[in-house]
Amino acid sequence: MKDLIDKAEILIEALPYIRRFTGKTVVIKYGGSAMSDATLRASFALDVVLLKSIGLRPVIVHGGGPQIGATLERLGKSSTFVDGLRVTDDETMEVVEMVLGGKVNREIVDLIQQRDGRAVGLTGCDGGMIRVTQRLVADRDLGRVGRIVAVDPSPIIAVTEGGFVPVIAPIGVDDAGVTHNVNADEAAGAIARALRAEKLILITDVEGVKDRGRRLVPRLSAEEAHKLIDEGTIRDGMIPKVECCIAALESGVGSAHIIDGRILHSILLEVFTDGGVGTLLSC
Amino acid sequence: MKDLIDKAEILIEALPYIRRFTGKTVVIKYGGSAMSDATLRASFALDVVLLKSIGLRPVIVHGGGPQIGATLERLGKSSTFVDGLRVTDDETMEVVEMVLGGKVNREIVDLIQQRDGRAVGLTGCDGGMIRVTQRLVADRDLGRVGRIVAVDPSPIIAVTEGGFVPVIAPIGVDDAGVTHNVNADEAAGAIARALRAEKLILITDVEGVKDRGRRLVPRLSAEEAHKLIDEGTIRDGMIPKVECCIAALESGVGSAHIIDGRILHSILLEVFTDGGVGTLLSC
Amino acid sequence: MKDLIDKAEILIEALPYIRRFTGKTVVIKYGGSAMSDATLRASFALDVVLLKSIGLRPVIVHGGGPQIGATLERLGKSSTFVDGLRVTDDETMEVVEMVLGGKVNREIVDLIQQRDGRAVGLTGCDGGMIRVTQRLVADRDLGRVGRIVAVDPSPIIAVTEGGFVPVIAPIGVDDAGVTHNVNADEAAGAIARALRAEKLILITDVEGVKDRGRRLVPRLSAEEAHKLIDEGTIRDGMIPKVECCIAALESGVGSAHIIDGRILHSILLEVFTDGGVGTLLSC
Amino acid sequence: MKDLIDKAEILIEALPYIRRFTGKTVVIKYGGSAMSDATLRASFALDVVLLKSIGLRPVIVHGGGPQIGATLERLGKSSTFVDGLRVTDDETMEVVEMVLGGKVNREIVDLIQQRDGRAVGLTGCDGGMIRVTQRLVADRDLGRVGRIVAVDPSPIIAVTEGGFVPVIAPIGVDDAGVTHNVNADEAAGAIARALRAEKLILITDVEGVKDRGRRLVPRLSAEEAHKLIDEGTIRDGMIPKVECCIAALESGVGSAHIIDGRILHSILLEVFTDGGVGTLLSC
Amino acid sequence: MKDLIDKAEILIEALPYIRRFTGKTVVIKYGGSAMSDATLRASFALDVVLLKSIGLRPVIVHGGGPQIGATLERLGKSSTFVDGLRVTDDETMEVVEMVLGGKVNREIVDLIQQRDGRAVGLTGCDGGMIRVTQRLVADRDLGRVGRIVAVDPSPIIAVTEGGFVPVIAPIGVDDAGVTHNVNADEAAGAIARALRAEKLILITDVEGVKDRGRRLVPRLSAEEAHKLIDEGTIRDGMIPKVECCIAALESGVGSAHIIDGRILHSILLEVFTDGGVGTLLSC
Amino acid sequence: MKDLIDKAEILIEALPYIRRFTGKTVVIKYGGSAMSDATLRASFALDVVLLKSIGLRPVIVHGGGPQIGATLERLGKSSTFVDGLRVTDDETMEVVEMVLGGKVNREIVDLIQQRDGRAVGLTGCDGGMIRVTQRLVADRDLGRVGRIVAVDPSPIIAVTEGGFVPVIAPIGVDDAGVTHNVNADEAAGAIARALRAEKLILITDVEGVKDRGRRLVPRLSAEEAHKLIDEGTIRDGMIPKVECCIAALESGVGSAHIIDGRILHSILLEVFTDGGVGTLLSC
User: Fold this and answer.
1) Which of A157, C63, D163, D197 is deepest in the core (most CB within 10 A)?
2) C50 and D15 in contact by Cβ < 8 A?
3) pLDDT at residue E276 above 90?
4) Domain B23-122+154-170+182-282 class, CATH top level
5) Which of C97, C127, C159 sits opposite B102 (nearest CB)?
6) How close C58 gets to chain B, by Cα (Å)?
7) What ipTM was predicted for this assembly?
8) Residues in chain F closer than 8 A to E15 (CB atoms)
9) For residue C158, which residues of chain B lie inside 8 Å, CB to CB?
10) Considering the entire predicted model, what is its pTM?
């Protein structure tokens, strides 16, 4: 009987979210342990398929740094990094495209399809979706590393209207049609903005944003986030993620989530429960 | 953490039902304790509003015997019953109509609206919805007690298309336009059939159908049900309920449920969990 | 031959009105002799069915004072009136609801359906249609007597779109969900305004508005009506009716009619002939 | 008061016809006195405009024998007739086309437009509408006189969908694209069949079909009509008209009317009153 | 092989025009040699049918001066001309209507239909399309010669929507419904403006607009055209044609073309090749 | 002038094809010189963009054998071939996927987009589009080489509906979700069948099908093709291409073309001229 009451309570908690999010777009940056661990991969795929099945519109943007590194190594080619960005010459870029577009992307499509979802892989070159200029870091030329200047969401919309989950590799093109490597978090944020998504979810390998006392902050306004960055509480790799979330909120995305991808079904829990499993940023 | 896993599991259990039932019609016979107890009333209303909010189409059919009895008594008028059916002369029928259509029906509409649902009350006379002939029991004339011969679902559809939950009082009209009292279970079944509903749910004051050992039978085929009636395991007041369910199944209703209205949120639990809270009859 | 010329002339007079009013909404306040006399009742029902059949959208709002009084009397409960308004305690309100919603409303639905029309009964509580606050008269508390503050026409539209004639009992709800008795003329006027109706027709037991010489005024502007009220030519019970019409005109209702319900087919004659049978108010 | 009752009765008689015929097509063969007399012309035009205004779809097919004769005479060209059909050489046909298509047709368009209708003139050549073969009478070659073999109603439908009354001159084309003169009654009948019209109305200069005692027959079945022809009661010029009506009925036209065009507003009276002003043929 | 390259180049030249003009309206003034010479007539008809077949919307406006003259002569009636305009009394107008509407128009319809096109003939009176006032030249009354004041394109649109090529005779009506003769170039220009056509094409018997050195000017802006008129390089009969084009451009017509109708397939060449066969005027 | 006549003739030849093929699907197998030569690549891309721009629906299926070979070589991995099929172990398949999906496919997308087309790259895994079983040759296990058993065209349709040209890499999945290499001609044929395409075009490095005298056969029926295979006139690598065409025709594809990709604009010439540039097979 206690069991029934618990079940009923969880349903009563979840149903209003379902009502609210039906037909809405959720852009999910997929990476880290959730992508490397087999159990977490299966959990991710099931979450995506369930979201889709009840009428939400998940859009997946993935990274693939480790896989790119492994292939480069196999080809006997080493990489230099500047500020965490891989210096990308033409030969490296060819490998990036082959690994992201031809391997990682397709594997995620398969993963979703093995759980009876239907997915279509895209890269940011398809339909000229992700438009970039070359990114310079302290005036240093990193080669084919791009900064996103615009996103044309029409290929994503076409695929979504067809009933599929779009899975997107973070590659962009410049005005001359030259492809560039782009950061996956940044790509997810820009796509969420272009789609006026309801949610942007960044799957990470940390619990979420922490306060000074290293305690998880479950909810955060853009303003508070700015303050935590300024005072140094949010630092290092978390800064670009939080900034990406803030930019999304400012462009009309309903909410942004930095969640712990090491928890099973973290997406479902974040979307359909009051507590969630990470940090929710909203205006 | 255990809590999160539980939540995720319940969601994973529930979401496929949501997917499956979106846009589907669920006809609910409302009565008994669920109608007389304030806590259960609130639980019922919330369940109905949640179903509606996530895209199902609940249709409520209610009884009102106790309220009719109370008003008749207040007017100093006594009733005779034959086989559980109230002998209904013209004066009694006028009271039946006033109590069911003018009081009970409106109170259920209010109950749903107080939980932010939107409901519209109807009687089976509206649009000539419930068409009846006089019911005779062993050739005895019970007055204006009707047997349903046809249901025109168009008024229910109009109200549902408008975004409202229809709440229906079990009154029917014969070919001459004379109103008759009809049994609420029978009305719910006939309406479910006319709407080709996905589900017919009868809310009762018992746990469900029991087997010989008085243990609850969670699932039952039409065939098995016939057998349990024949062998006398299903008996008395449960017989017409089960027969009403079987008739619905035979006319294309997806499943029929006899559930325990004394459990909080019994509707949600029956619709969205594998176990449910009563007996599910299907073909 | 003379007969044919007459017929042709009446058709030539009527057809342009038919063209003009097709698809338009006509809100009719039904009451008085037209409701108590059997021949007039049949004439009213036929008029409504004919209007509907050629593509107009009649909406009926009814009163029921005499029937409420009779039932209260039968229950041994007397009423006090202040300025023509029945002081309405909870017990009285229960009777009002039962009589208006459970008896009078249903009888009008039947009346229309007996002439092959299709009607659906509603009260102002359905879908929260008629929203009220308590009406105070000279600061005196009359109990559950409401002043209309808003009308949500969506339940009426749902029923009309479904092909039915809505028949509406003048009951309203306040913000707390408590029901109140409202004046039927006022309800008809507020509904006409919410629907941006083409016409508001008040069926009365007088010929129409009279001038100083007690001659019927066939046409009247809002301005002239104000003047006749100011100078005392329009007085007593006619004042609220005329004011209700003026308010409707000011909110975009095309025209308002105060007609003589004692004339057979008064609605048809008012709508489809140049002369009409009462007073037409327009801007 | 008597006047009001009369008006109401005529409306009650007419409204069901309006309901029944809304959106329906009525093909009218226009000719005779109704075309030559100024008062009757005005009456005809008003009837057509009123039919159109309340949602019927009138289609006019006209003759023009007298006008053709007058122009030929003016050009000093005489005609021979065989069985009432004008022997039509190329020069005559050129005159037929100019008079029917360039003069008579345009005058009818103007006539309708002067009463605020909107009309478009067509000939049977437009869009290859009326397809003919040469008509032979007792093996005699009458020149360019056609027998209708098919009607493609799409130009009529295009014009009607645009909101116009089509006015059609009875000219047809054969497979080689050569134009031919066709009988206007026959053209009206064939067009009514191709449009599956509700009604075919032939405006004549007689009262209608007469029985043996020379009394008007208000209603006639196809079978009875055949009998009256066989027994010689229907004879001469009335035979092809009646046969044209029968053929229309057999192809699914709802009813066919032979009416007296000398009566003012004969079309309105035939369409909207029980009695009508001629003979109604139906299956 | 050379042949294949040529073909490919012509296709590559033509396809972008096809893409650009699909669904667009092209108003063509038809007259001169293209109307009198049998080979050119066939070429014209094929061009129109091909334009229509690939999704453009050709609209034909024709003249007929020579044919009117011939018929008037045959009737022994002479004409006076003032500034190139035929003084038009009632009797002359009757002939104009019969010849333009009953003969020339129908022949063009046939011409198009013989090449498997589908055409419908209209005059400017149909649906009150071309509205005129009387044209006065130096205060002289020329009788029924009209100046166009407005064009209602709805009859053209109805015919085009139905899949037909509209063929329009240049006759207009004044407010009193009196028909007038109008200039065909002027009618084509006014119709192009009313339809917001993509192109206005005037088929002439000259090469196009010439410069001072009598060389063909392939492209001309409205401004340059004004200058050429002012300096006297464009003169006589070319002035009204160029002014008609300029007026069209100023009302939103995309481009106006004065082309040489003596060249086979001049319409196709002008529409689908870069060079064209006359003078293109654009803003 | 001769030039104008030539142009007109080519247009008159081409326009009916444009009419006929608008909205129709053309599946093009792209490979060979047309893919390796820069001028031919540009010509291909322009043809595809022009087809799309005038309303056809081109679908591109590409091969990539040489590029796969080059990458394998670079990785120091050699391949064995059986009957022209590459024996494909898991490591080879990973390279196939990366090269086809991540490099060749994306380059074709870019090629089209550089000519202002809009393309989206897909593989046969997307949406489970190309379903395969393992292909055995003489019972020899070639590893992950697939035989197509079904094509689900919905991802192609989604992309086409979105306004993009789909570019498809020939990779398939089996029931267990394992990817396989498939032959590009076979993939193009199966996709054409699933889409009920109007045309299947195989771009080759030969002139087309030759007869015994080694002369090009411009048109061939399925029956004649079978005969030429049986008698050994069609042999070697041409046999599977012709069989692929025949299978397409038998499944309702309108026509199949084996064309010479070494000719500039071979696609345009084949689609829009009577002669074409290869062999057309039809039923």
Assistant:
1) D197
2) yes
3) no
4) alpha beta
5) C97
6) 15
7) 0.93
8) 50, 53-54, 268
9) 120, 158-159, 161-164
10) 0.87
Contacts of E117 in chain F (CB under 8 A): none
- Chains in touch with B (≥3 Cβ pairs < 8 A): A, C
pLDDT at A83 over 90: no
Strand order from edge to edge, sheet including D219-221: D119-123, D165-169, D57-62, D25-30, D199-204, D255-260, D278-282, D219-221
Round to whole Å and give the CA distance between C164 and C120.
6
Q: Between C13 and F119, where is the model more confident?
A: F119
Mutate to test the interface with C, among D7, D262, D277 (most CBs of C within 10 A): D7
Least confident of A24-38, E61-75, E94-108, E253-267: E61-75
Query: What kind of fold does domain A198-283 have according to CATH?
Result: Carbamate kinase (3.40.1160)
Chain E residues within an 8 Å CB radius of F15: 50, 53-54, 268
Reported as a single tens digit per residue, the pLDDT across C202-224 is: 999 999 999 999 999 999 999 99
Q: Which two tokens stand for residue B115?
A: 């939980």
d(CA D259, CA D204): 6
CA D1, CA D7: separation in Å to the nearest integer?
Answer: 10
**Domain C40-45+61-193, CATH number (from 3.30.70.1450, 3.10.180.10, 3.40.50.720, 3.40.1160.10):** 3.40.1160.10
Q: Which of A184, A154, A157 is nearest to A169 (CA)?
A: A184
Q: Rounded to whole angstroms, how far apart are CA atoms C36 and C30?
A: 11
Question: Is there a contact between E253 and E192 (Cβ–Cβ < 8 Å)?
Answer: yes
Q: pLDDT tens, D210-220?
A: 999 999 999 99
Task: Indicate which of A93, A113, A120 best probes the interface with F, i.e. most F CBs within 10 Å of its own CB.
Answer: A120
> Which residues of chain F have a pLDDT value below 50?
none
Give the residue numbers in D contacting C (CB under 8 Å), as ranges.
Answer: 1, 4-8, 10-12, 14-16, 18-19, 22, 46, 50, 53-55, 263-265, 268-269, 272-273, 277
The residue-averaged pLDDT of B148-159 equals 98
Question: Among C262, C255, C230, which Cα is nearest to C27's?
Answer: C255
Each residue's pLDDT tens digit, D47-73: 999 999 989 999 999 999 899 999 998
Beta carbons of E109 and D100 less than 8 Å apart: no
Identify the bridge partners of residue C61 per DSSP, sorted by sequence position: C29, C168
Q: Could you say which architecture CATH assigns to the domain F24-282?
A: 3-Layer(aba) Sandwich (3.40)
* E6-62 confidence digits (pLDDT tens): 888 888 998 899 889 989 999 999 999 999 999 999 999 999 999 999 899 999 999
Q: Which CATH superfamily is domain D24-202+252-271 in?
A: Acetylglutamate kinase-like (3.40.1160.10)
Q: D90-99 and E90-99 are packed helices; what angle lies between their axes, rounded to 10 degrees?
A: 110
Q: Alpha-carbon Rg of chain A, whole angstroms?
A: 19
Tell how far CA F257 is from the center of its chain.
10
Q: What is the pLDDT of residue B137?
A: 80
Q: Do B10 and A10 touch (CB under 8 A)?
A: yes
Percent of chain C's residues with pLDDT above 70: 99
Q: Is the pLDDT of residue B1 over 70?
A: no
3-state secondary structure of A3: helix
pLDDT of D106:
95
- Euclidean distance between CA atoms E149 and E153, whole angstroms: 13
pLDDT at A1: 61
- CATH class, range A27-193: alpha beta
Average pLDDT of C257-280? 92
**CB of D227 closer than 8 Å to CB of D56:** no
Domain ranges of chain F: 24-282
Query: Any idea which architecture E23-282 has in CATH?
Result: 3-Layer(aba) Sandwich (3.40)
